[in-house]
């Protein structure tokens, strides 16, 4: 198809904020003594302010790559640079929104969001209370400061996770299927909210999803992974005007072209994975 695939050889306007270079990650599986190569030879540059979505079959290494960028998993070979410096651990410039919310059940909404500052040791002075309150307002949870996670819906818990991630004002948001566990309607509403929030704050985002539509609606570029071994299959520029509402975009020929292309790409991957798994 005519979709331009970014081969990463076009001249960059500026140095990338995130640079994944020839990244390979192998896990040692203690139970079997085997070594499993999760991803091999991954190269990806993400520029400041870019929203990059990541699609790919289950187990192809999407979370692994994100965890290396977050500083939670070390590369086996290759490296990840953030702002030109190798990542050696978590830092205040990066925050993660986990699929399963990962909230602290014994803490209120306010204290869960406050945890985002505690992790970055940002609690000096008095200003932190205002920052926590602002983050809670930004995700639309004013009035629920004293509620506990179990008193909230899934979508609301996800918002707490988002507020905790943005409270320390990281430059980079790493989002691992952040809408995976909410119902379809909430998902649509939250997707719009995330888009507005990111546009307002100018953050750089790496966003893993299983939804083709979501990858197109949110991404400036879409990274498609393949399995066996996990690697990047292609990178596609969305080239759709913003703002993009689900309804307006669905009749756009470019949206339909991208959707068809991604369906075919992922189906081919799923078929190959089934063949590889059966052999
Ligand atoms: N800590 C670990 N120890 C051993 N193997 C692991 C570990 N974490 C992940 N793996 C393996 O690495 C591979 C990639 O896993 P990863 O979680 O990165 O995939 P994914 O693309 O995020 O999948 P999904 O879409 O299901 O979330 C899988 O085969 C998985 O079993
Ligand atoms: Mg994953």
UniProtKB/TrEMBL annotation:
Domain ABC transporter, first and last residues per copy: 18-252
PROSITE patterns assigned: ABC_TRANSPORTER_1, ABC_TRANSPORTER_2
Keywords on record: ATP-binding, Nucleotide-binding, Transport
Pfam family, one: ABC_tran
Gene3D superfamilies recorded: P-loop containing nucleotide triphosphate hydrolases
UniProt keyword annotation of Translocase present: no
One MF annotation (Gene Ontology) recorded for this entry: ATP binding
Alphabetized PANTHER family for the sequence: ALIPHATIC SULFONATES IMPORT ATP-BINDING PROTEIN SSUB (PTHR42788:SF13), TAURINE IMPORT ATP-BINDING PROTEIN-RELATED (PTHR42788)
Name this protein carries in UniProt: NitT/TauT family transport system ATP-binding protein
């Amino acid at each position: 198809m005519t979709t331009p695939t970014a081969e990463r050889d076009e001249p960059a306007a500026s140095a990338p904020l995130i640079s994944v270079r020839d990244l390979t990650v192998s896990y040692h599986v203690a139970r079997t003594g085997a070594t499993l190569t999760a991803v091999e030879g991954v190269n990806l540059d993400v520029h400041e302010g870019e929203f990059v979505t990541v699609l790919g079959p289950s187990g192809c290494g999407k979370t692994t790559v994100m965890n290396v960028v977050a500083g939670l998993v070390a590369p086996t070979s290759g490296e990840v640079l953030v702002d030109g410096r190798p990542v050696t651990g978590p830092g205040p410039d990066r925050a993660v929104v986990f699929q399963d919310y990962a909230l602290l059940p014994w803490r209120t909404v306010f204290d869960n969001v406050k945890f985002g500052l505690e992790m970055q040791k940002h609690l000096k002075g008095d200003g932190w209370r205002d920052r926590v309150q602002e983050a809670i307002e930004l995700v639309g949870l004013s009035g629920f400061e004293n509620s506990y996670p179990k008193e909230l819906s899934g979508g609301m818990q996800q918002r707490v996770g988002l507020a905790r991630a943005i409270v320390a004002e990281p430059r980079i948001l790493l989002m691992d299927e952040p809408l995976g566990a909410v119902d379809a309607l909430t998902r649509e509403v939250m997707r719009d909210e995330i888009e507005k929030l990111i546009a307002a704050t100018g953050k750089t985002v790496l966003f893993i999803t299983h939804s083709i539509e979501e990858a197109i609606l949110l991404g400036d570029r879409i990274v498609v992974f393949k399995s066996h071994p996990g690697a990047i299959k292609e990178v596609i520029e969305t080239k759709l005007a913003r703002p993009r509402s689900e309804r307006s975009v669905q009749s756009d020929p470019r949206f339909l072209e991208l959707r068809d292309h991604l369906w075919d790409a992922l189906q081919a991957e799923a078929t190959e994975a089934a063949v590889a798994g059966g052999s």
